[in-house]
Amino acid sequence: LEYHQDGKTFGRQLGTYALLVAVPGERELGTAIDVAITDHGYRSVTGVPYPLDVNSASMDELTAIPGINRNTAGDVVV
User: Cα–Cα distance between 19 and 11 in angstroms, integer?
Assistant: First the structure.
């Protein structure tokens, strides 16, 4: 993980063509995490930590998952 911006943490996967990945929330920089990809752009992807504990996940993490809107996420986050 490389830097924080606008409430997200950005990093790159290991490999020869490293795409930029955005993960909701601020995470400890300089660490490596597993990420499940939830969306993509031209040269970047969005994802959530994997495995994701839905009981401790934030609204931003839950709404990053396709098919989960703010109402559904609000039912989980109490």
Answer: 8
Instruction: Indicate whether 13 pLDDT > 90.
Output: no
Start-to-end C-alpha separation, the chain: 29
Domain ranges of the chain: 3-76
**Which token pair is 76?**
């989980």
Q: Enter the DSSP assignment of 69.
A: -
Task: Say whether the peptide bond before residue 51 is cis (omega within 30 degrees of 0).
Answer: yes
CA-to-CA dists, residue 36 to 13, 63, 78, angstroms:
12, 13, 24
Alpha helix (H) residue ranges in the chain: 59-63, 70-76
Note the pTM of the prediction, 2 decimals. 0.78
Q: Give the angle subtended at the CA of 51 by the CAs of 6 and 23, to the nearest 5°.
A: 15
